[in-house]
Write a sequence for this structure.
């Protein structure tokens, strides 16, 4: 019981530090996700459109996903040096696979008859994609984004190993100083971040799903 | 007017979908393409808005070769209603109907007016329905939206690909009726694909029957029913429908050829015993040359029965209605029902009055039984 009191006291006393780390954590995840969203959606659209490229793109994304996070960040460090941006690049690569795959699946799931209706009323290929196919694939893409976000929040905790910050810094310091309270002070907020991301994106996904169901 | 000239379509796998199709779709009419699945009817329709391009041959719309028109702008000029409704599920009813006007960059106020007008046209209140999503509508309502979406930008041509096939029978009938009455007002050139002969016969001004990539027969529903080109057409139309439309048979085919007759010189007692034997309530009186003289109902005979010197000639009455050989049975039926006659005599001709037979209510019943064969054992 006294442990809980100590933890709470620590977190209250160091709220400014924890908040700064949490914001940094969120920023790394956010930039990683946004760039993964832009690139991933484009690659997903390309995979859906060109059947021959799809296996190539999806396998590469899969391979990236398989590399252990620590190893990936270490390799990136060799090329990008230490710091915030290296972490962001790592998170970007990690988020790619769920987003590409879900965009690809989502676009393939669009009812062929609806696409044909779009072509039939005189939409150009681009209009068909932006006005019909992508909006209909959106629930799938949101599911991908959600998975990517949860993974990214977790992976971001190892950022301190390559000179990044974020809530991992507290965990890292706690391990070095054998201070349980500091480990928890980093781990609990980062777990909470993952849960919040999962919950909010999940609700968004459901809203989109209800709207597009036919 | 739409004209297809020497169209061939061969798919990459070598499947010959269409072979030398030459067709004209009449302006302002409902042209129905019909045939078994895989006959090329949908392919033929999709040539018109270039969803499919022919391997060989040309399609002309109002004399213009459509292979020279950009497919996107061509499609915006042609209404398209597809099989599985094909509404965009993520768009409201308003946005669905407004799709083509928006692509054509109409003014927002004009689009608004047009959408409301169209919703009114199919009996859906704009206030209630414009902001709903397709999933909130019934199948029949959805397809009504599908139809007015095709009409939105006022195209002169509308393509309809089995639009009502997924609906339940009642909504299907309703939408067919609505389409017919709609067409009376809008007078579009409609190309309608179906595999349902009843639907085709109901809505078509012209039917084009296809099989294995070829046109087998084209013409008005009436012409196809009356003069099917070959056995395939007959099979496809179905025996029952053919029979219904066959020429109405002549009275000769249904009349009784040897009814109970008697000469005018026959005595009354003799006549009564003849009637008893043959179980009839009146005699048809003919002379030795088989000329029709009249008829003697049993009540007339009984009335004069006591006067022994009387013969049938004295009690008989002339027929007021007779029909000639070769008259359609409908005429005889009409006479019988308007004048409450139990039977009508048939004569060789009105001039010479040679008696050949009678059409009775019973013979009509037998004819009906032939035309509408019983449905197994259901009849009681």
């Amino acid at each position: 019981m006294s442990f809980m009191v100590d933890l709470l006291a620590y977190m209250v006393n160091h709220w400014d530090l924890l908040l700064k780390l949490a914001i940094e954590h969120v920023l790394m995840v956010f930039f990683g996700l946004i760039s993964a969203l832009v690139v991933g959606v484009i690659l997903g659209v390309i995979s859906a459109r060109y059947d021959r490229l799809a296996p190539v793109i999806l396998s590469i994304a899969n391979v990236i996903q398989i590399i252990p996070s620590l190893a990936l960040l270490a390799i990136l460090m060799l090329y990008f040096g230490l710091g915030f941006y290296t972490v962001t690049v790592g998170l970007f690569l990690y988020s790619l696979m769920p987003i590409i795959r879900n965009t690809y699946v989502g676009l393939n799931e669009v009812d062929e008859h609806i696409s044909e209706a779009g072509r039939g009323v005189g939409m150009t290929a681009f209009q068909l994609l932006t006005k019909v196919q992508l909006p209909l694939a959106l629930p799938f893409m949101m599911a991908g984004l959600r998975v990517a976000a949860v993974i990214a929040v977790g992976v971001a905790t190892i950022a301190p190993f390559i000179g990044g910050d974020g809530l991992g810094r507290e965990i890292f310091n706690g391990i070095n100083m054998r201070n349980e309270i500091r480990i928890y002070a980093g781990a609990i907020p980062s777990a909470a971040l993952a849960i919040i991301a999962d919950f909010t994106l999940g609700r968004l996904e459901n809203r989109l799903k209800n709207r597009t169901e036919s | 007017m739409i004209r297809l000239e020497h169209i061939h379509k061969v798919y990459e796998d070598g499947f010959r979908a269409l072979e030398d199709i030459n067709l004209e779709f009449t302006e302002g009419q409902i042209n129905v393409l019909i045939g078994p699945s895989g006959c090329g009817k949908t392919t033929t329709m999709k040539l018109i808005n270039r969803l499919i391009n022919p391997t060989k041959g040309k399609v002309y719309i109002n004399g213009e070769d459509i292979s020279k028109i950009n497919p996107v702008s061509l499609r915006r000029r042609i209404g398209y209603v597809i099989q599985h409704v094909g509404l965009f599920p993520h768009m409201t009813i308003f946005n669905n109907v407004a799709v083509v006007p928006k692509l054509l960059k109409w003014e927002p106020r004009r689009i608004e007016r047009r959408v409301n007008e169209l919703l009114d046209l199919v009996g859906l209140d704009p206030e209630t329905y414009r902001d709903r999503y397709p999933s909130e509508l019934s199948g029949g309502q959805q397809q009504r939206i599908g139809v007015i979406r095709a009409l939105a930008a006022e195209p002169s041509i509308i393509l309809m690909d089995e639009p009502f096939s997924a609906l339940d029978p009642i909504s299907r009938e309703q939408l067919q009726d609505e389409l017919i009455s709609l067409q009376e007002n809008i007078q579009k050139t409609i190309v309608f694909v179906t595999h349902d002969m009843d639907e085709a016969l109901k809505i078509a001004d012209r039917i084009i029957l296809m099989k294995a990539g070829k046109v087998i027969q084209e013409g008005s529903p009436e012409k196809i029913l009356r003069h099917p080109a070959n056995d395939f057409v007959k099979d496809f139309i179905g025996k029952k429908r053919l029979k219904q439309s066959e020429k109405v048979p002549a009275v000769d085919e249904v009349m009784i050829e040897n009814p109970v007759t008697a000469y005018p010189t026959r005595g009354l007692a003799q006549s009564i015993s003849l009637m008893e034997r043959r179980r009839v309530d009146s005699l048809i009186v003919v002379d030795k040359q088989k000329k029709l003289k009249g008829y003697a109902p049993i009540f007339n005979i009984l009335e004069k029965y006591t006067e022994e010197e009387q013969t049938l000639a004295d009690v008989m009455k002339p027929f007021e209605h007779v029909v000639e050989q070769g008259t359609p049975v409908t005429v005889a039926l009409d006479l019988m029902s308007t004048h409450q006659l139990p039977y009508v005599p048939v004569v060789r001709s009105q001039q010479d009055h040679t008696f050949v037979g009678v059409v009775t209510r019973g013979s009509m019943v037998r004819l009906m039984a032939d035309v509408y064969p019983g449905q197994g054992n259901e009849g009681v």
Chain B touches chain A through 26 residues (CB under 8 Å). The first helix of chain B runs from residue 41 to 48. The mean pLDDT of chain B is 83. The radius of gyration of chain B is 31 Å.
